Amino acid sequence: MPQADLIIHNARILTMDEERPRAQALAVAGNLLLAIGSDSEILALAGEGTRRIDAGGGTVLPGLNEAHMHIFGGSVSLTQLSLFGVKGFEALKQAVTAYAAANPDLRLLVGLSADYTILSETEKVTRHHLDAILPDRPFMMLAPDRHTAWANTAALKAAGILEGRDVGVGNEIVMGEDGLATGELKETNAIDPVAEMGVTAGRDHLGIGTGGDPDHVTPEERASDLALIRRGLAYCAELGLTSVQAMDGNLYQLEILDEIEREHGLPVRVRMPFHMKNFMDLDMIEAKAAGWRRRFDSDRLRCDFVKVFVDGVTESGTAVMVDDYADEPGWKGDPLFTREHFAKVAVETDRLGLQVAVHAIGDGAVRIVLDGYEAARKANGPRDSRHRIEHVEVVHPDDVGRFAELGAVASMQPTHPPGSAGLPLEPYLTRIGEARWPLAFAWRSLKDAGARIVFATDWPVSPLSPLSCIQDAMTRQPWKEGMPDQRLSLAETLAAYTSEGAYVEFMEDRKGRLKPGYLADIVVLSGDIEATPAAELATLRPVATICDGRITHQA
Ligand SMILES: [Zn+2]
Q1: Cα 71 to middle of ligand 1, angstroms
Q2: Model pLDDT, residue 210
Q3: In this structure, are strands 32-37 and 25-29 parallel, antiparallel, or unpaired?
Q4: How many angstroms separate the alpha carbon of residue 274 from the centre of ligand 1?
Q5: Terminal Cα distance for the chain, rounded
Q6: What is the pLDDT of residues 482-529, one digit of tens each?
Q7: C-alpha span between 505 and 497 (Å, rounded)
Q8: Residue 319: pLDDT band by 50, 70, 90 thresholds?
Q9: How far, in Å, from the CA of 273 to the mean position of ligand 1?
Q10: Centre of ligand 1 from the C-alpha of residue 146, in Å
Q11: Could you report the per-residue pLDDT of 394-436, keeping only the tens digit for each?
Q12: Which range is least confidently modeled, 206-210, 259-263, 532-536?
C-alpha cells in the first residue's frame, strides 16, 4: 500500500457507506481516500512526510455538498448589509445608517434578508420609509427570497424607474396612486435596474436575470469580480463545504471559475448550469448547454445541467398554485413557462442527456414540472435522468408519489419554512391557507413516498452555514398541533448534504461517502454531532476541510 499523505485519527467517522458506517481513522494519498479503519490500522500507514490531524474525538464526515446556491451573488453578499433578524423602523434605521456611514463610497447601498414584515405585521414598506432613513443616497433592500425588493426614491430616480416601466409578465414595479413607483419591486426585471448600480454593476445577477453575459467589462472590473468569487469560495471551504451546486449560470462565471481553477485550484468543486429562460429558442439548449458540458467537464468544475424558473415566490403572489391563493380568490399565479412550453424544454434537454433543475415553489408549478418530466419520459423513453425540482414549497396530494415514479429529486431548503431560521409565519401561512399546510416543505412526506431529497440553503437567500441548516432541519416545528412532523433523522439529514448530494450530481460512485478509492473530500467537526442536542448543532465548527486531498481550511 502506498504511503499516506494525510491521516485523520482519533475521530468519530460517519462514512455514509452502508458496508462500513463507522470508523476511527482514515488515510489520504493524493486526491483519493486510501484506507479507512481503526487508529492502529491507519497510523501504521504513516511515513515520514505524512501530515496528521487529531480529530480529538470530533465527528468526521464526507465533505458537505450545498445542492442549491448562487456563488456570485453569495460572494457579493459578503460585502452587503445583513438585515437578518432586524425588526421595526428604529432598528432598521440604525442598521442602515451605520452601514451607510461605514461605506461612504458605495454608489448603491444594499441590505439583504429584509423580512416582508420588517416594519410590522401590517405596515407595508414604501420608498417613503426608506427616504426617512436615507434621503440622499440610493438604497435598496431585498427580501430573504430576493424575489422582492424595496428601494428609496434616490435609487428609483437614479435607476430611471420612479415613473414605472414595463418589465414583462411576472415582474412588477408596483405603482402608487400618485402615479409614481411605491418602492416595491417584484422579481428580477423590476429589481435589476436598481441592482445594476451596485459594486458589480449587476453582473452578479445576470446568471439569474438573463443567463447572458455582461457587455462591457474592463480588466479591472473582471479582476474585482474574480477576487469577490475567490473570497466566496474560500468562505465555502471555511464552512466545511467541498462541493457546491450553483443554480444560476452564464459563460462569464464559468470562465472566471475556470481561471481560478487554472491559477490557484478551486478550493471547492463547483457545478454550474446553463440557464434556460422563457424567451430563448429551444435550439439554444443544444448550442449552449451541450457545448458548455464538453468544455467544462472536470471533477472540480462542471457544467452539466439546465436550470429553469417556472414560477416566483408565494409572498409576492408569483408562485403558481393549482387552486387559488387562500387570501386572494381568483388568483393562482402566472407561470413563467406554460405547461406546453416547459414540456418542450424538458423533452429537448432530456433528449440531449442533460439533467433539468427547475425552480418550482407553488403546487401548480411543481405539477407543470412533473408533467414535463413525464412528457420527456414518454418522448425519449425512461432513463436515469435524475431531473430535479428546486424548493417544492407546496405539493398537491396527487403529486407526492410522482417524484418516485419519475425518478425526480426534491431539492429543498430547511432554512426556508416560515417559523424556521427566524423567519416570520406571516404573510406566508395566510397566503397558502391551512389546507396546504400539511404538505408544505414536506420533506418527510416526500421521502416516505420514495422521493430522493437533497438539502441546501439557497445562499445568499439564507446564510450558507450547512451546520445551521442541519440544525434548522432537525428542529423544524409543525405550525399547528396534529400536523405531520416533517423532520428527517440526523442520518437522513446528513445524507441529504453528502451522499444524496453526490447522487444528484451523478457522482455517487466517487464522492459523498468515505470509502477507499473515493475522492478525498472530508470535513472534521469540532465535536460529536450525534451527541450534540439538535438545537445546538450550529455551535459545531468545521475545524478542517479537505477537498480533493488538499486542506482548504484549517481552524
Ligand atoms: Zn436559488
Answers
A1: 10
A2: 86
A3: antiparallel
A4: 14
A5: 30
A6: 999 999 999 999 999 999 999 999 999 999 999 999 999 999 999 999
A7: 12
A8: very high
A9: 12
A10: 9
A11: 999 999 999 999 999 999 999 999 988 878 898 899 999 999 9
A12: 206-210
- Cα 306 to middle of ligand 1, angstroms: 14
Average pLDDT, the chain: 95
CA of residue 156 to ligand 1 center, whole Å: 25
Cα 528 to ligand 1 centroid, rounded to whole Å: 31
Q: How far apart are CA 452 and CA 496, in angstroms?
A: 9
Say what the alpha-carbon torsion angle 490, 405, 272, 456 is, to the nearest 10 degrees: -20
Residue 232, pLDDT above cutoff 80: yes
User: What 3-state class would DSSP assign to 93?
Assistant: helix
* Contact residues for 218 (Cβ-Cβ < 8 A; gap 6+): none
Packing angle between helix 219-238 and helix 251-263, nearest 10 degrees?
A: 70
Using the mean position of ligand 1's atoms as its centre, give its distance from the Cα of residue 42 in Å.
41
How far does residue 225's CA lie from ligand 1's centre (Å)? 20
Order of strands across the sheet with 274-275?
274-275, 305-309, 355-360, 388-391, 409-412, 452-455
The alpha carbon of 160 and the centre of ligand 1 are apart by a number of angstroms equal to 27
E strands in 152-302: 172-175, 181-186, 241-246, 269-271, 274-275, 301-302
Inter-CA distances, 414 with 279, 392, 418, 434, 529, Å: 32, 11, 10, 20, 18
pLDDT value at position 260?
98
Quote the distance between the C-alpha of residue 351 and its chain's center: 26
Q: Where are the beta strands (DSSP E) in 187-252?
A: 241-246
**Residue 2 banded pLDDT, cuts 50, 70, 90:** confident
Cβ-based burial of 221 (10 A; exposed 0-12, middle 13-18, buried ≥19): middle
Residue 385 C-alpha from the chain's centroid? 21
Determine what percent of the chain is predicted with pLDDT higher than 90: 90
Q: How far is the CA of 174 from the centre of ligand 1 (A)?
A: 23
Q: For 348-385, what is each residue's pLDDT tens digit?
A: 999 999 999 999 999 999 999 999 999 999 999 999 99
Distance 145 CA to ligand 1 centre (A): 8
Q: Is the peptide bond before 335 cis (omega within 30 degrees of 0)?
A: no
Q: What's the 251 CA to ligand 1 centre distance in angstroms?
A: 18
- Cα of 55 to ligand 1 centre, how many Å? 34
